[in-house]
Amino acid sequence: MTLSDKSYYRRLCRNILADRFNWRKYCTPSLYFGREICVTPLHCSYGQIGYTINFPYTNAPEVEYDWEMNKLTIDDENWKLVC
């Protein structure tokens, strides 16, 4: 069973915010609830500040979590507006 896009993003975002998403596990492309994802750490001059989740080989929007600013976005939009 595959989740609809909206349900999939909602589940992913809620798991990120609840600190149940192990981003380190997905630094190499892996399946997450049946879809391939890959995480890229976000860095600035003083270290890592979050990560970006992309979906290889698709046109799916990227999810970005900036834990320094506590901001979660899907293609630069507030995740709640998209989900």
What does this structure look like?
There is one protein chain. The protein has 83 residues and is α+β, with helices and mostly antiparallel strands. The chain has one domain (5-82). It is 20% helix and 37% strand. The protein has two helices and six strands. The protein has helices at 5-17, 79-82, and strands spanning 30-32, 35-44, 47-54, 63-66, 71-74, 77-78. The longest helix has 13 residues, at 5-17.
Write the layout of secondary structure elements.
Blueprint: H1 5-17, E1 30-32, E2 35-44, E3 47-54, E4 63-66, E5 71-74, E6 77-78, H2 79-82
Antiparallel strand pairs: 1-2, 2-3, 3-4, 4-5, 5-6
Gap from first CA to last CA: 20 Å
Fraction of residues in β-strands: 35-45%
| Record field, number of beta strands | 6
Radius of gyration: 12 Å
Count of alpha/pi helices: 2
Q: What oligomerization state is this entry in?
A: single chain
Shape: globular
Helix and strand succession? HEEEEEEH
Poorly predicted ranges: none
Q: State the secondary-structure class.
A: alpha+beta
Largest sheet: 6 strands, antiparallel
Essential attributes:
six-stranded antiparallel sheet, 83 residues, globular, 6 strands, alpha+beta
Short description:
This protein has about 80 residues and is of the alpha+beta class.
